[in-house]
Amino acid sequence: MNRFSLTHLSNEVLRSELTTKAVREKEATAELLAHIAEFDERKLYLPAAYESMLAYCIGELGLSKDEAKKRIHVARAGRTCPGVFEALEQGRVHLTGLRILAPHLTSENADELATRIQKGLQALVCRCTPALASLRSRLRAMLSSSRAAARPTNVSATRRTCSGTAWRRMTSPRSTTEQSSC
Length: 182
What we know:
Elements: H1 11-41, H2 53-59, H3 65-80, H4 83-89, H5 95-101, H6 110-117, H7 121-128, H8 130-149, H9 152-161, H10 164-171, H11 176-181
Helix pairs in contact: 1-3, 1-4, 2-3, 3-5, 7-8
């Protein structure tokens, strides 16, 4: 029997097992990152004949370059802010969010940032990073000028590619106070 064929499971068993697997994945990811962090700190990739932790993760662990970079980056942040691993394990933050937050984490703000990520990572980073605010302003200006020149079919195509909330954010005028925060 194919262990990946789940057609024999009842709806209730499938629902229960799905939740269990998701929890286990979060735990396993947090533990993997803690191991990567310690392995990297001890430079144990050198005796294994790898020049870097990245090379070790790709060659020995079978991770893609992108997967390895993301995990190493977050693992290193977790060494300075141990709460990172717990937040990931508990599902308060996801790996991609931690990758984005890692450059901004300190031992003083790690818990707050991990909690706030669930409520709007993009808005938080935008407020904390003036370069993103500038980019957003330029994109708004470009969007405004292209909207004025665009045919209805172009707007329609753009509308279809954006979710309702994203479309409203891109097209709605903002007050001066909103613009200054991001």
